[in-house]
């Protein structure tokens, strides 16, 4: 009987903790939407650290634009890439733009910028109606376009049966 009570207590505490975490996550998203970026970062960073793609997007976005944190392209790239790799459409477009701006200094990342712009257009209704992929493609050499298209096909194949991360 004592084991049953102990197990029930553990289950109840686990459920209460889970509900608290969910409300922190939801509160973090509400804070982000309300442009209370400092609160959003505080609440969502633990989720980003644990691999939540939406929290990772928020972290990347705030670092990309310096919202309640110092603008930091390296941290923005880190978080946006982690999120985008999990098929988070919201992260793909900003990642492509950031990579493209870096490609002006370091040509090696331009194919990655093209890849993420193409994936953003593939998986995001909003990004489908932007010209980012065409602008980036206009700066590519033919061999870079081919390399980007090959990467694009690999991603699409790997993601064929995977839901978008939300």
UniProtKB/TrEMBL annotation:
Pfam families: Sel1 (PF08238). It comes from the Bacteria. Gene3D superfamilies: Tetratricopeptide repeat domain. InterPro entries: Sel1-like (IPR006597), TPR-like_helical_dom_sf (IPR011990). This is Sel1 repeat family protein.
């Amino acid at each position: 009987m004592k084991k049953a009570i102990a197990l029930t207590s553990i289950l109840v505490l686990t459920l209460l903790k889970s509900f608290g975490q969910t409300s922190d996550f939801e509160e973090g998203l509400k804070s982000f939407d309300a442009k209370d970026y400092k609160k959003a970062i505080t609440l969502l960073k633990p989720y980003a650290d644990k691999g939540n793609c939406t929290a990772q997007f928020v972290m990347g976005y705030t670092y990309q634009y310096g919202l309640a944190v110092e603008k930091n392209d390296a941290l923005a790239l880190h978080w946006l890439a982690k999120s985008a790799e999990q098929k988070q459409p919201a992260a793909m477009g900003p990642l492509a733009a950031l990579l493209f701006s870096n490609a002006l200094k370091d040509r090696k990342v331009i194919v990655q910028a093209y890849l993420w712009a193409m994936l953003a257009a593939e998986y995001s209704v909003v990004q489908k109606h932007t010209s980012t992929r065409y602008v980036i493609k206009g700066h590519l050499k033919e061999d870079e376009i081919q390399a980007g298209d090959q990467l694009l096909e690999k991603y699409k194949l790997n993601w064929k049966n995977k839901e978008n991360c939300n």
